[in-house]
UniProtKB/TrEMBL annotation:
GO terms for molecular function: tRNA (guanosine(9)-N1)-methyltransferase activity; tRNA binding. Keywords: Methyltransferase, S-adenosyl-L-methionine, Transferase. Its EC number is 2.1.1.221. This is tRNA methyltransferase 10 homolog A. The keyword Kinase does not apply. GO terms for cellular component: cytosol; nucleoplasm. Residues 63-77 have a biased composition (Basic residues). The active site is at residue 213. GO terms for biological process: tRNA N1-guanine methylation. Residues 91-282 form the SAM-dependent MTase TRM10-type domain. S-adenosyl-L-methionine-dependent guanine N(1)-methyltransferase that catalyzes the formation of N(1)-methylguanine at position 9 (m1G9) in tRNAs. Probably not able to catalyze formation of N(1)-methyladenine at position 9 (m1A9) in tRNAs. It comes from Podarcis lilfordi (Lilford's wall lizard). It comes from the Eukaryota. InterPro entries: MT_TRM10-typ, MT_TRM10-typ_sf, TRM10/TRM10A, tRNA_m1G_MeTrfase_euk.
Length: 309
């Protein structure tokens, strides 16, 4: 037998193995197919329905995306249409009226920074934000000043409200107000003053103490005014309003009352427009009660107008 030829029994053995492997492979595929079919049949009707829904959801993904895009475009067009039709003042209250800036200067004195804890500085920051927002939408916006701006307050504003550097219609100064205003123009608003305001002089510069102290430093703004030799006065709160608490108001409340008075020219209306209910503000006389009723009716009417819009 030559070395180049294989024994017949060896060749037959290999052929048998190949055929055997082919048969094994076919049997395996058949078993897998059978198993899948059995799995499908074993699926409950509920599961098959869920599978179909999932398939439909995937197929309709682009359609949903297109619908959302069309919806956004429609809302944008509606808003644009409302703005264009608001020339008669029916859509935006601000467009109903002509804004006339006041010459009155209103200053928040931020020189008490070292007397406050950080949590109180953060509260002052929020009150200043409220003042800024209210002044921007006021009928008669004041000339708004922040003086002695620095320390913890500035650091907190840089950290949490970096946009303050772009604020408009506000003068933010590191200098003390005495360096910016004439002494004879200054009036410090403090609840401890024996003087009571009856009218606002728009040629004056009124100062609000930028202090959140929870009564830890009673009378400090009054003492500050006396030490600096400048005029001082309190709002006529006690003439019109009975309070459950002390007559010390938050910075933004004083600011907003001034704005409200410039618009309404009525202290009663100004107080009850601004003062929060938690202060327990109640009218002292029948005139004030009548004012309260008028304000409530006005708010109801405005609410109905807003609903109709």
């Amino acid at each position: 037998m030559s070395s180049g030829m294989l024994p017949e029994n060896l060749e037959a053995s290999k052929l048998t193995d190949v055929k055997g492997d082919g048969k094994c492979s076919l049997d395996q595929m058949g078993n897998e197919l059978l198993e899948k079919m059995e799995n499908i049949e074993a699926m409950s009707k509920r599961q098959r329905k869920k599978l179909m829904k999932q398939k439909q959801w995937e197929e309709q993904r682009n359609l949903r995306k297109q619908k959302r895009k069309e919806k956004r475009l429609k809302r944008k067009q509606e808003r644009q249409s409302q703005l264009e039709s608001s020339n008669d003042g029916s859509f935006r209250k601000r467009l109903r009226r002509d804004v006339v800036p006041s010459t009155l200067r209103l200053i928040i004195d931020c020189s008490f920074d070292n007397l406050m804890e950080l949590k109180d500085v953060k509260k002052l920051h929020k009150q200043i934000q409220r003042c800024y927002a209210e002044n921007r939408k006021a009928l008669h916006p004041v000339q708004f000043y922040l003086t002695s701006h620095g320390g913890q307050l500035k650091d907190n504003m840089n950290e949490t409200d970096k946009g303050w550097v772009n604020w408009k219609d506000i003068h933010i100064k590191s200098e003390h107000y005495s360096e910016l205003m004439k002494k004879e123009d200054l009036v410090y608003l403090t609840s401890d003053s024996p003087e009571v305001l009856s009218e606002l002089d728009e040629s004056k510069a009124y100062v609000i103490g930028g202090l959140v102290d929870h009564n830890h430093h009673k009378g400090i703004t009054y003492k500050r005014a006396q030490e600096e030799g400048i005029s001082h006065a309190q709002l006529p709160l006690g003439i019109f309003v009975k309070m459950n608490s002390r007559k010390v108001l938050a910075v933004n409340h004083v600011f907003e009352i001034i704005l409200a008075f410039l618009e309404k020219r009525d202290w009663e209306e100004a107080f009850f427009t601004v003062l929060p209910q938690r202060k327990g503000a109640k009218p002292l006389n029948e005139t004030t009660e009548a004012t309260m009723c008028k304000l409530q009716k006005s708010e109801m009417v405005q609410g109905e107008i807003s609903d109709s819009e």
